[in-house]
Amino acid sequence: MQLTDKDILLHLSISRITFLKFFEKKILLENIDSADKLSLSSINDIENLIGRNLTKAVWNGKENFHCAEIALHFCRTLGIQVVLFSDEDYPEALRQIDDCPYLLFCRGDVRILKNRCVSVVGTRRLTTSGKIAARQFAYDAVIDGCNVISGLANGADGFAHQGAIDAYFDYLERDGNPIVLGKTIAVLPSSIDEILPASHKRMAAQIIQSGGLLVSEYEPGMGMAKWHYVERNRIIAALSPATVVIEAPAGSGALITADFALEYGRDVMFHEIAFCENAQKVSHLVYTDLEKAHAKGTVSRYKLENTPEKYLEAGAPVVKNYKDYCSALVEAPGQRKNIPKQGELF
Asked: Which one, of 128, 117, 203, lies nearest residue 158 by Cα?
């Protein structure tokens, strides 16, 4: 069903209430039928509806309404699509998680969210071999008709997106016969109208040009916060049946994505390049720095102990390339017993 501006304004007004959980936003939607009514509601009115005290919440209904109006204007002006959690275009895989986004803001072909996909993540401190591996994995996935999902960050994300883009422009036709290509989807930690890092603006444009998609749960104009990165990671993990980690030293944000994937019942795999000699050197340096920071009390033990080896010991497969990844998807759990030793690339 096509949403009217009045509908979207209400959804924007509800979505941007950051102190509410997803199910609480649904309660508001069931009880309030317009943004005007929500703007006139007090914090006590909201508490009574959701059945929870909001002692630390800051609420200004009129200001919230004004910001929602501005966001709606930007969505219309910039051609940003607004996808509600109950819409047909909202991906079912994302809808399955408890903390799914109330709204998605999209630029590009939103229909591809429903297609077959794989999430590819990794460190920003990627080795030369890791750069090649990330690009080639994504390239092969797109040629096979599989979408590649990542976070548009420097490092593994950027090389994965670039590999997918390159595949699209290289193989629009092969031997004169059209083939069904995958696309690439970038999940942003920023608002949908802002590209971070700024150096990836050209890449973001290429993603759209190649039939891909930029997606964010943050409305245009919303300011950036550090916790947005972790929130972004949960979406990357939820959208695919599996997350492939290219390289990730201890404490890497890519391993947070892996944790989300496991929490959501998805597979986690590691590219073998993560255990090559150069990658292990980087991991050792990072781990040493984390130990020092932990000793000073500035880094949690979780971050120190969240290493690739932890996932391998729990049964995460190691794959050589995209073709091997496809094989691993249908293998019985625990079938792969090969856990690499320090500096070993098998």
From this structure: 203
Look at residues 118, 123, 112 and name the one whose alpha carbon lies nearest to residue 138. 118
List, in order, residues 6 or more apart from 309 with CB less than 8 Å away. Answer: 339
- The alpha carbon of residue 216 and the mean position of all alpha carbons in its chain are separated, in whole angstroms, by 9
Compute and round to an integer the Cα radius of gyration of the chain.
Answer: 21
Place of tokens 């750069």: 131
Rounded Cα distance, 43 and 11, in Å? 18
pLDDT at 168 > cutoff 70: yes
User: Are the C-beta atoms of 152 and 158 separated by less than 8 Å?
Assistant: yes
Residue 266 φ/ψ, nearest 5 degrees? -95, 165
Read off the pLDDT band of 175 (50, 70, 90).
Answer: low
Query: Taking 80 as the threshold, does the pLDDT of residue 179 lie above it?
Result: no
pLDDT digit string (tens) for 216-248? 999 999 988 889 999 999 999 999 999 999 999
DSSP line for 39-75:
HT--HHHHHHHHT---TT----HHHHHHHHHHHHHHH
